Amino acid sequence: MQITGSSAIVVGGAGGLGEATVRRLHAAGAKVVAADLADDKGKALAQELGIRYVRTDATSEESVQAAIAEAESAGPLRIVVDVHGGPAGGGRLVGKDGSPLDLDAFRTTIDFYLTAVFNVMRLGAAAMARQEPLDGGSRGVIVTTASIAAFEGQIGQIPYAAAKGGVASMTLVAARDLSPLGIRVVGVAPGTFLTPAYGQAGDKLEAYWGPQVPHPRRMGRPSEYAELVHHLCENDYLNGEVIRLDGALRFPPK
């Protein structure tokens, strides 16, 4: 699929992985909408690149629809990338004091990291279905963001691992559901990535996680996530798969 001239929306587009993706798709010729709740960063990015920023709550149907409408006004929507974040509650299933893990905190994490991804996926797919197909019948691609925690979640990560596992599990089913419409669905499962959000703490994280990555022995870079998204957009035979992007890292128990 050709990126140039297509409209793209990146949900979470003001964050580390999202910003890198916005920059990459913009450089490739897409008409990008950065959708996020981080107004200052989003507006600054939009002004720098000459793109559009829309304040977007991924958990809200109305909010996501508004961002999609903005993207459609710029051109045929063919690329939806969801890399938004949110609160991630955690803790052992039963604490040292014998208390069970908080149910409301679990529900909140599922809402942000799974239900919201489903929301973006379904609304983005419905918008893509309205577009005219390209040669070969393709209408577009949806890229979701899971995590290697979906496969080997660590102690205390039950809510997050459950949510990301759900994102991974939706990938093949969504790809099969949307195949008659010519819409592909691909997931990315990043390992440990060093983003600007960590600030000065990034050095400590790099020192801890870097040596645990088999090769290259460092944390991932946002640009590497964005490069993969770029390739996923252009390679029409990548569909229904969750791709690990982790330098062969496998999370230990803790």
From TrEMBL:
- Source domain of life: Bacteria
Q: Which InterPro entries does the record cross-reference, listed alphabetically?
A: NAD(P)-bd_dom_sf (IPR036291), Sc_DH/Rdtase_CS (IPR020904), SDR_fam (IPR002347)
Gene Ontology molecular functions = oxidoreductase activity
Gene3D superfamilies in the record: NAD(P)-binding Rossmann-like Domain
Give the keywords, sorted: Oxidoreductase
Name any one Pfam family assigned in the record.
adh_short
As for family, the record states:
Belongs to the short-chain dehydrogenases/reductases (SDR) family.
What name is this protein filed under?
SDR family NAD(P)-dependent oxidoreductase
